[in-house]
Every structure is written in structure tokens, then in C-alpha cells.
Amino acid sequence: MKFYRREGQHILVDRRVLSRIVRYAELSKSDAVLEVGCGTGNLTSYLLKSSGVVYGIEKDRRFVDLLKKKFSHEISENRFVLIEGDALRVEWPEFNKFVSNIPYNISSELTFRLLEHKFDLAVVMYQKEFAERLVAREGSKSYGRLSVMVKAFCRAEILEIVRPSAFRPRPKVESAIVRLYPEPEIAVRDVEKLDLLLRAAFSSRRKKFGKVLRSLGVDCDVEGYEDERPENIPPEVYARLSECL
Ligand SMILES: C[S@@+](CC[C@H](N)C(=O)[O-])C[C@H]1O[C@@H](n2cnc3c(N)ncnc32)[C@H](O)[C@@H]1O
After folding, report:
1. Atom 12 (ligand 1) nearest CA
2. Which residues form the Ribosomal RNA adenine methylase transferase N-terminal domain (predicted)?
3. ipTM reported for the complex surpasses 0.90
4. Beta pairing class for 121-127 and 175-181
5. Same domain, 154 and 227
6. Which residue's alpha carbon is at the smallest distance from atom 13 of ligand 1?
């Protein structure tokens, strides 16, 4: 079968990594797992062994046909529910754990879609650089709008870096397994205002923070960060100052 890189079709074949993903997700038979991008079902097999029900969303018709054959027994028992379509468009079923080796080209949109839902735990394979942006704090070169926005919804940790040799075909980039807990790290009253502030700040990283705020008409105590660059402003300060917008 031909795999399309543009669809992020890199199949995880390293069994040790697959087992660890399941362990990180702390699965039990009472769990309902959502997996986006089931591909050839390698991860799906592991998820089915350890959870009560798996909901899979897959866009590629060829994989959907393959999955229907491979898991016909589990489908007949309603232990595997396969949804054919684009995970950014189809309605998501109710689940309490999200475990996926996702297509990297939709990482950001998919993560924010996930964060709109109620869940207990998520274990997600991302491109390494994206994972670093998710967990970054002020002062780090990976710190940006995504790092702060995500903290308004959850706490993220990188569990391990995964080499290209764990996949077929091999991606050109390294990957990282990230665990997300739905526990906000910063208190935000209005996420849209925070987003507005972050877009203004990180569209001009060389600008001093005081100037960014004045350009938005914010008249607030900037807590001594007037002359700092946006990448040095802590997430908590962005959250507080977004209330002045
Ligand atoms: C990185 S592969 C993961 C395959 C498999 N889960 C594994 O771990 O080996 C990504 C999968 O997502 C599918 N995919 C790509 N874009 C998608 C989308 N928008 N919605 C649902 N599935 C998508 C691809 O067809 C591919 O099967």
C-alpha cells in the first residue's frame, strides 16, 4: 500500500513504543478511548486490548476498508467503532481518554479541538518541535502563542522523544509523546482576549511589551515588564493583562 506523507501516514511499528503509549495512558476496561488516524491499526490493536471501547476516526478510505476487515470481530461486538471522515470536521463521540499518533500537519487544530472536549487524559504523538512549543515556558526559544494558549486549558508534559526509525515510512523529523491533563495552568476569563493579546505580542517579537500593549490601547500596570520582549513574559502575566483588553 502506498503511504502519503502529506496525510502524515507514518505508521508506528516499534512495539516497545506502542506498549509504552498504552502504559502512559493508564488504560483500564472502563475507558472509552478516542484514536484519531488509526492507519493500519497498529496502535488500535494495543488500545483494544487494554480498554473497554475504542472510537477510531480515519480519513483514508483504504485504511477504513483494511480496519473493517482487521477488526470485524471487535466491530460486531461494538468494542471498536470506526468513523470514516476528517477528524477536524466529523462530530466526536464521547470518550474519556484520547490516545493517538496524529497526522502532524493538523497538530494545532486537532489539539484545540481536543481541548474543547471533556476528557481525563490524553497521550499524543507530535512532531518534536511542536511538542516543545506546547510545553515551553517564557525565556525558551520554543515559547510562543501556542505555549500560552494551551496552558489556559491543560498541563502538558513530554514523556519521551521517538526516533524516525520507530515508523514506516520513516518521517524526516523526530517525534515526541506528550501527556495532556485537563488542568489549566493559568486562570483565563476570556480566551479570545488572551488570543488577541498573544497574536499582537508574538507577531512582533522584537517589539517591547509596553509598546505592544499601547498598540492595543491597554492602560494597565504592566508589572515591570514594559521593556521586556514578548518571549520573556510569563503565561500568568499574559493571562492577567488580557483582562485589561
Ligand atoms: C501518523 S499516521 C498514524 C497511523 C497509526 N495510528 C499508527 O500509529 O501507526 C496518521 C493517520 O491519520 C490519518 N489522517 C490524516 N489526516 C486525517 C484527518 N484529518 N482526520 C482523520 N485521519 C487523518 C492518516 O490517513 C493516517 O492513517
Report:
1. 37
2. 17-184
3. yes
4. antiparallel
5. no
6. 37
For ligand 1, the distance from its centroid to the CA atom of residue 10, given in whole angstroms, is: 8
* Ligand 1 center–CA 149 separation, angstroms: 25
| 45 Cβ below 6 A of ligand 1 | no
Question: Same domain, yes or no, for 72 and 157?
Answer: yes
Shared domain for 200 and 101, answered yes or no, is no
For 30, counting Cβ atoms within 10 Å of its Cβ (0-12 exposed, 13-18 middle, 19+ buried), the class is exposed
- Domain range for 202 is 191-242
Number of domains in the chain: 2
Task: Give pLDDT tens digits for 125-137.
Answer: 999 999 999 999 9
Is residue 102, in this structure, part of any structural domain at all? yes
| Amino acid at residue number 177 | I
Mean model confidence pLDDT for the chain:
96
Residues 114 and 156 in one domain: yes
pLDDT in tens, 101-127: 999 999 999 999 999 999 999 999 999
Using the 3D structure, point to which of 136, 152, 181 is the last residue of a domain: 181
One domain for residues 170 and 202: no
pLDDT per residue over 162-210, tens digit each?
Answer: 999 999 999 999 999 999 999 999 999 999 999 999 999 999 778 999 9
Residues 63 and 177 in one domain: yes
Residues 6+ apart with CB under 8 A from 54: 32, 33, 34, 35, 44, 47, 48, 74, 79, 80, 81
Q: Which of 161, 181, 201 is the last residue of a domain?
A: 181
Using a 6 Å cutoff on CB, does residue 106 contact ligand 1? yes
Q: What is the pLDDT of residues 157-169, one digit of tens each?
A: 999 999 999 999 9
Collect all residues with Cβ–Cβ distance below 8 Å to 60 and sequence separation of at least 6: 4, 7, 9
